Amino acid sequence: MKKLIATLLALVMVLSLVACGGGKSGEPVYAIICKDASNPYMSRMVQGFKDACADIGVTALEKSPETTSAEDQIAIINDLVAQGVKGIAIAANDAAALKATIKAATDRGIAVVTLDSDTEGSQMFVNQAGVKEVAQVLVDSVYDMTGGEGEFAVLSASSTATNQNAWIAAMDTIIKGDSKYAKLTWVETVYGDDESQKSTDEMQNLMTKYPNLEVVCCPTTVGVLAAAQVVTNNPDCGIKIAGLGLPSEMKDYVGEGKACPYMYLWNPIDVGNCSAYMIKAILDGKVGEVGTSFTADNEKTYDISAGDPAEKQIIVGPPFQFTGENIDDWANVY
Amino acid sequence: MKNTKNKIPGKISGLLRSRESSLLLVMILLVAVIQWRSGGMFLTGTVITQLTQNYAYTIVLSFGMLLVLLIGGIDIAIGATLALSGMSTSLLMASGVITNPFLAFLFSILVGMACGWIIGVTISKGKVIPIIATLGLQYIFRGLTYMVSGSNWVSSDKMLAGYKSFAQGSFLGINNLFWIVIIMFVAMLVFLKWTSFGRQIYEVGSNPEAAKISGIHIDRVKIAVYTINGAIAGLAGAMYTSMYATAQGNMANGAEMDVIAACVIGGVSLNGGQGSATGVFLGAATIAIISKSLSLVGIDAFWQQALKGGIIAVAVLINVIVQRNAARRALERREI
Q1: Do the strands A312-315 and A305-306 form a parallel or antiparallel pair, or are they unpaired?
Q2: pTM
Q3: A111 vs A108: CA distance, rounded Å
Q4: Shortest CA distance to A40 belongs to which of A22, A64, A59?
Q5: CA distance B304 to B313
Q6: What domains appear along chain A, each with residue ranges and CATH number?
Q7: Which residue out of A204, A230, A234 would a mutagenesis test of the B interface target, given it has the greatest number of B Cβ atoms within 10 Å?
Q8: B162-196 residue pLDDT tens
């Protein structure tokens, strides 16, 4: 009798162990790792990722560090590898630090794509908009808002932010490469560290240092908000704000005659959505060499270009313009 | 017994007075260097107004931290308390529950008080050392902030117009937020010097054993101090959200570091029992001046953090040396 019970118990144990493998109801698991847990932009990305996972028929898992730290992301990736997920989409907090951890994951056959911010070791960067495309709309905003000539400054996130630095470098190349922009004077680039207090300080200091400043271009959602608020509280300064901002946060500041006549951003829901399909495409072996193209399960065709620093990259779509006319509609979306 | 009680605080405040004057000197020197390096851009009405407005909440937080440090504690959860109270107040405004700016400030203070009370009880009744208790509760408060907001921000258009305009308004040429600082400063001076509870705070911090024997309920003092500190962080949460017209889950992340630095520069001892409202005000003003001016004098962004840290380290070092010399002199006098 005792033997029978022992055998039964052992059997139950073995069975429960088997049941533990894989995700819910045995579905494969795709995980998404955000920069930090508090960013509403990231929440929309997660939403898109989860929608796509539901359509593909896999379980979506969200894991995010408390603050924008690369160390925490390394720990999360290690956990996910141990859990046996099939794919990871990550918005990297550092351009290099995650390399070894990601390699350990890809060595085990896990598809790793980066979204929002790229890092070394990633198999594919799901680019929300090409660096050049973003820089071009930012430069054109500055050109348009200054009326073709005058002083402008850039208020960025932290001085080490991968995205912002790439856009700023590309803006520089565009301005230097075309005589059309010769009369624009780029006075300074300052860093608000994506904090309200620091961004406000930097914006106010720009106004103090450059009395003839006409436009401040902010390629970061926290910065553009702080800058627009400073300008709104100093209506006589005559400075216009250009940049990338969240429609729901910028509703009060976007429109003709306001601090920010218009701004740009892409659709984070699409970025998250696309990432899940890219994981699927990599796992299915659809992704070929650089220079070729493929059609993903969402029935869209993507061109593969060389990534930097990721191995390959695809571009989700062009940035989207928010104006006084459409801001109210978009404010309800994200 | 009564006699010695009166003597010791007298000596301490005398010692602090000299330290405050040396701090004031350091501050004037700093401002002079900044004024020179920025080509005269720093000492203008506009910049000073911006500074007092932008750093009002940091200075207010420093007064709360002063009380906590005086009883020999520390609270690294103030940034999270600020975020939770500011966020919950903003959410209630967005959903139309709070329709009066004054009630918004009051509610934020109450949330902060609740957080502070929890910290106080954890430390005094739970016998958890302050740094660990507030480290843990910091994550809980911050996590709650993300939870109640669903990781979303509360944007400007959802806040009361009167709430936002309060932070931009002024009275007698001084920004409303800085009036809060002035009122807090005067209240702290009176509270610490002339109320018996204020004196008890010093006694608990400088000699807990003696305080206990003299009949002070140490736990009660501790809970009260952390609750007051929480209320102040709640007030700062309302100041922050009205000033920047936005409530973000990660707001004031790391604010505790600037605040502790302000206290230490202001001559507050981390061992408890030593420090004054004047010192802390000067210390917090020094931090504000450094933060505001670094980019104004054209220091490269990559060096700003390091330089800020360097200035703080030097200020603290000066303090430690002054303190050590004073203690040695006191000891020599006793031996004679």
Answers
A1: antiparallel
A2: 0.78
A3: 9
A4: A64
A5: 14
A6: 27-128+268-317 (3.40.50.2300), 131-265 (3.40.50.2300)
A7: A204
A8: 999 999 998 998 999 999 999 999 999 999 999 99
